[in-house]
Write a structure and sequence with these properties.
This protein is of the alpha/beta class. It is about 50% helix and about 10% strand. The strands form 2 sheets. It has a 6-stranded parallel β-sheet with strand order 3-2-1-4-5-6, with helices on both faces. A 3-stranded mixed β-sheet has the order 7-8-9, with helices on one face. Helix 1 links the parallel strand 1 and strand 2. The protein starts with a strand and ends in a 17-residue tail after the last helix.
Length: about 300
């Protein structure tokens, strides 16, 4: 069977792009896969492990003759990369991205997209605390959501091709408006990551504890905080700088909720605390029922090993 894409170019060779390469190869979705990373060390590693068919010195080389181009670089680098590859994009090619912020990516990339190239912004809601070309695995996207934020003039045939590819990699697809995406992700991902980084930072300030008890006796809650806070710092720096308004809005709401809980603890209001925890626990159960995690002790994170 002829693969749906003849050549896929991955710009950035970290966890997401690497997992796409594994999934596309496993499912026979591309005839050839090229890749480029800014770091020479990353390019060398990708070539050494055979992550893609061709590792190029420049992004322009990677995208030449590609019918699908994926921007898997930090949000802050999107504009520069888009400007570099724009003159080399093939007419009719699909250009997408995997950034955690969508409106800022659209503002950065869309002005550089030449006529005849179909720009369809995207964001796979999948990941681990690991990064780099060795981190990827074929099942990363299985039963996870991949959000697309098509522009008003998006070609429907191109959109259908991209959706079919994403589903073939095991993901579920949904579409939404870019500002709505950014607000939703501020709640479900961005603010939680910032809170995790902050909590680990608090522990770090307590050096007499951090150097002994906190590390040695880490309970599940703190272990999860440190897992989240182990994510790529460059990516998260750019996420917060480019989704500033939505993140600050959610952090303000969080501070209000935290104040109410502080008061309940100070006043000894056990009933309020019990009712609050009961109500919020239902959200965790809903996540499990939706198939986005498991009730297993490791939250299903051994899937890579399986």
């Amino acid at each position: 069977m002829t693969p749906p894409f003849q050549k896929v170019a991955l710009i950035g060779l970290g966890l997401i792009a690497g997992s796409m390469a594994h999934a596309m190869r496993e499912q026979g979705l591309a005839e050839r896969i090229s890749g480029h990373a800014r770091s020479a060390a990353t390019r060398e590693t990708a070539a050494e492990i055979g992550l893609v068919d061709e590792v190029t010195e420049t992004a322009a080389e990677a995208v030449r003759d590609a019918d699908l181009v994926v921007l898997a670089v930090p949000v802050g680098a999107m504009a520069e990369v888009a400007a570099e590859i724009a003159p080399h994009l093939a007419p009719g090619a699909i250009l997408t991205d995997v950034g955690s912020v969508k409106q800022a990516v659209i503002d950065a990339v869309a002005p550089h997209v030449p006529p005849g190239v179909h720009f369809i912004p995207g964001h796979p809601l999948a990941g681990t605390e690991h990064s780099g070309p060795r981190a990827g695995f074929a099942t990363l996207f299985r039963n996870r959501w991949w959000l697309l934020t098509p522009l008003p003039d998006t070609d429907l045939q191109a959109l259908d091709r991209l959706e079919s590819l994403i589903r073939a990699m095991g993901a579920n697809v949904d579409t939404m408006e870019p500002p709505h995406h950014d607000l939703v992700l501020a709640v479900t991902s961005h603010a939680p990551h910032l809170i995790a980084y902050t909590m680990v930072g608090v522990a770090d300030h307590l050096r007499r504890v951090t150097e002994s008890e906190v590390i040695r006796y880490s309970a599940a809650g703190f272990r999860d905080f440190t897992r989240i806070a182990a994510s790529d710092p460059t990516m998260w720096r750019d996420v917060f700088l480019h989704n500033r308004e939505a993140t600050l809005d959610i952090l303000g709401r969080f501070a209000e909720e935290l104040f109410v809980l502080q008061r309940a603890i100070r006043m000894g209001d056990g009933q309020h605390l019990h009712d609050y925890f009961t109500r919020t626990r239902a959200i965790r159960r809903g996540i499990i029922e939706a198939g986005q995690d498991t009730a297993a002790p490791d939250f299903g994170r051994s899937a890579k090993a399986d």
